[in-house]
User: What shape does this take?
Amino acid sequence: MRWAGRGRHQRPGRLRGDVISVSETAEEVLVESHGEVRVITLNRPDARNPASTTMLFRLTELARELADDKTVRVVVLTGAGKAFSAGGDFKHFVATATDPAVARATLDNGREFVQAMLDLPIPVIAAVNGAAVGFGATLAALSDIVLMADAAFIAEPHVNVGLVLGDGISVTWPFLVALNKAKELVYTGDRIYAADAVACGLANRVVPSADLMTEALALAERIARQPRSALEGSKAILNMYPKAVLSTVLESMLVRQYDQITGPDHGRIAQELIAKAGARK
Assistant: This one.
């Protein structure tokens, strides 16, 4: 069953003073009902579910809508096809690299998305079915429980393209893994595969690819049977740790990210990537 609830947060036609347009007909994010469980699917499988402008803003709205919907007890987040989310959409990358207004709007939405995910009272299970890169890594990090397919991996390559680490990564990874391990992954952009992700704390367990959604839904249904008030209260307490650093760590990250986006390192790398893409056409 496709879910169409909106709650009090209505989807705007335009955001940030007409900088970003969200298509009403886009199906980049699918939401399906399984009783009291909602399955959110990133739905650009041909491109490995990259984070487009539409997707980024829609997910912020969706987190708020789910918080308002008292019929939902647990969320399962996954990707269509072979990837969870393999990073940023190239058109969005070009827009943020070449238009400071788009960059600012994107960063503002990033702040709102992290806040909305941490405020979401119901548990979120990430069923990481493949590559979780950049924004995909952030989605996993902001989830409460992470199940990874045996061939899946996580990577945070922002530094590789002249940017500081991502917004959700900045406020979660230091609580999930040893700080020196977080630094290694951020500084290198290296992939960390499922078994190693579990070993270091970025994921809960490895699941055979064919069984991933079955196990994620079974876990979601089990958690959904728990007393709502106790579950939501426990999540609120545990999320006080990352929320305590939003006004310091996240705000510093956003300021530095804007400086990087508009600075020479990212500008040079972005132009090189844009030129390569043009040469391949």
Remarks:
- The radius of gyration is 18 Å.
- The domain at 14-214+227-280 is CATH 3.90.226.10 (2-enoyl-CoA Hydratase; Chain A, domain 1).
- The first strand starts at residue 14 and ends at 15.
